[in-house]
Each structure stands twice: as structure tokens, then as C-alpha cells.
Design brief:
This is Phosphohistidine phosphatase. The chain is of the alpha/beta class. It is built from six helices and seven strands.
């Protein structure tokens, strides 16, 4: 059984209009939200085996605010492919390429692909949670999708949405 944790980067700053999109850091609200999410992940024992993270500044900063809460080493792979993804199939391909034998995988990325990917694969679970996730996937939100099928990330795969946690629910 595989668990996929989809984490949209926390709220980024638009304070410096000179910065390229790729280089935007988190704002104060995003920094706080990422720390709250790190504490939540640790409290719920939702620590992945591997983290696939976009190379953009705001995703790397989101990741850096999670790591102090993890009690064991986590393999981390930073990749430009997540930043450049334009379709849910791009995320699927990234997961296929990097997940190997890992059972708990976190992908830290961007919308709209994050939201589209979650909608495509989280087909089962609480109707209320699915509706909440489908209505909006805010910055800093976490979706946990469980895949009972060994062919977990195929085009036909259907996962179970186990939780959807927007940062506003944490504090």
C-alpha cells in the first residue's frame, strides 16, 4: 500500500516585483503555515520515506520549515520537473521516475497541477473531504491519498483521500 502526501507550497510573497516567479520566497503567513504543517505531520506520524520537491524557492522554503519536525532521515530530491509540470500526467511521470520502492511519498509542488492531480487520483473516501478538496486547494494544504492497488500510480489508479488539511485548520 502506498501513501502519497501532496503538499502545495505555503503562501508566497509578491513584495518584490523584480523577482522571477521561480525565486519568490514565502511571506510571513506562509512561513507560519509551513511550520504548523510540519508540527501536524510529526504529531500525526505522517513522515514520508522520500520527498520530491520543486526547485522553486517557495517550495524549498516550505520543505525547510517541515524538516525540523521529522524525527528520522528522509530522502529528499529537488527537481525542476515539478516546477515545470503543466499536466497531472507530468506529476504521475515524476512519481514513477522517483518513487522506486518507497511506500510513503511526499510531493511538494504548485497549482494548478497539484489540484488537478489530486482530483484525478483521489476518487474514493469521505464525500465531504473530496468536496472540500475539489472546491479549493489553498496554499500550504496537504492531501493524503492512499493507494491499495500495487499498480498504484497507473493512469487507471484510484486512491482513497484519507485527509485534506488546509493550514487554516491548524491554527
Amino acid at each position: 500500500m502506498h501513501h502519497l502526501f501532496l503538499l502545495r507550497h505555503a503562501k508566497s510573497s509578491w513584495a518584490n516585483p523584480e523577482l522571477e516567479d521561480f525565486d519568490r520566497p514565502l511571506n510571513a503567513r506562509g512561513q507560519k503555515a509551513a511550520g504548523l504543517m510540519g508540527a501536524y505531520l510529526a504529531q500525526e506520524k505522517l513522515i514520508p520515506d522520500i520527498i520530491l520537491c520543486s526547485a522553486a524557492a517557495r517550495t524549498r522554503e516550505t520543505l525547510s520549515r517541515l524538516l525540523p519536525f521529522f524525527i528520522h532521515d528522509v530522502e529528499i530530491r529537488i527537481t525542476n520537473a515539478i516546477y515545470h509540470a503543466r499536466h497531472p500526467d507530468d506529476y504521475r511521470d515524476i512519481l514513477l521516475e522517483h518513487s522506486e520502492a518507497s511506500r510513503k511519498i511526499m510531493l511538494i509542488g504548485h497549482n494548478p497541477v497539484m489540484e488537478d492531480f489530486a482530483r484525478q487520483y483521489a476518487k474514493q473516501g469521505s464525500a465531504d473531504l473530496i468536496q472540500q478538496m475539489n472546491n479549493k486547494f489553498p496554499t500550504g494544504s496537504l492531501a493524503e491519498i492512499e493507494f491499495p492497488d500495487p499498480d498504484w500510480i497507473s493512469e487507471r489508479a484510484s486512491g482513497i483521500l484519507r485527509r485534506f488539511v488546509p493550514p487554516r485548520s491548524l491554527g
